[in-house]
Specification:
Elements lengths: L2 H15 L6 H10 L7 H7 L3 H11 L11 H19 L4 H6 L7 H4 L6 H19 L3 H8 L3 H11 L2 H16 L1 H9 L1 H20 L3 H14 L7 H10 L10 H4 L3 H13 L12 H9 L1
GO biological process, one term: mRNA catabolic process
Family: Belongs to the CNOT9 family.
GO cellular component, one term: CCR4-NOT complex
Length: about 300
Amino acid sequence: MKMIEVSQIAAEQLVLELSNPDLRENALLELSKKRELYQDLALLLWNSFGTIAALLQEIVSIYPVLSPPNLTPAQSNRVCNALALLQCVASHPDTRMLFLNAHIPLYLYPFLNTTSKSRPFEYLRLTSLGVIGALVKVDDTEVISFLLSTEIIPLCLRTMELGSELSKTVATFIVQKILLDDVGLDYVCTTAERFFAVGRVLGNMVAALAEQPSSRLLKHIIRCYLRLSDNRRLDNRACDALRSCLPEMLRDATFNTCLREDQTTRRWLQQLLHNVGVNRVPPLQAGAGFDHNMMVA
């Protein structure tokens, strides 16, 4: 018997075991560890009787320990294994819209609404963000429209302020992907309240990065700003508003070293400053070559 056939049989057996409360914990662990090895696991999970219900039962079962925060590492690991399988379903082209139409992302929002910085909660938020990130990774206006009908923007902004660097990075990536869709950009720019809420959080993150730089996170932040500065959509008043909330640290030499090896992000930053009519403050002599590269990139 071929190895692929053996793997498929093993996957089917483990999926069956998800419906048995006594066998579920081990099945969750094994499936989440080997999910990349099983062909079309998403279809198997979605089409097997009672499987999605069992995964949702795992999620709902820890709601009571979210507030007050009493989540143990073991509970967090177990529910994150269930979330990893849901991410598999969210990623597959044949199950993505079924996943959305069942409103399954809403079951994850209580996790994103938590504020405890303990490791079990941070792992829970990060894994939940991974599910949403899988949805937005493929450019699909229908996905963006669904997410905008929920509280995803405020929840991501909360994580961007309170989460670990990795959680902040994933949350900012989600906001970036929403903004890159015209529907998402229109949503954020429709009211001053939404526009400034996003701008305020991005500004706070830039200030924090001046103390603890992260080129990966900064790249997503600058891409968000650049999209907000889209000249085709920005009237004079909106341009003034964006210019007023753009951190000084993006205009001077604060992040020269952080961006030295990232030509793409340097180009984005230069385009952003051009779009809002801001001249980059000349850096110290030691960074002159870097700034020249930005101007010609």
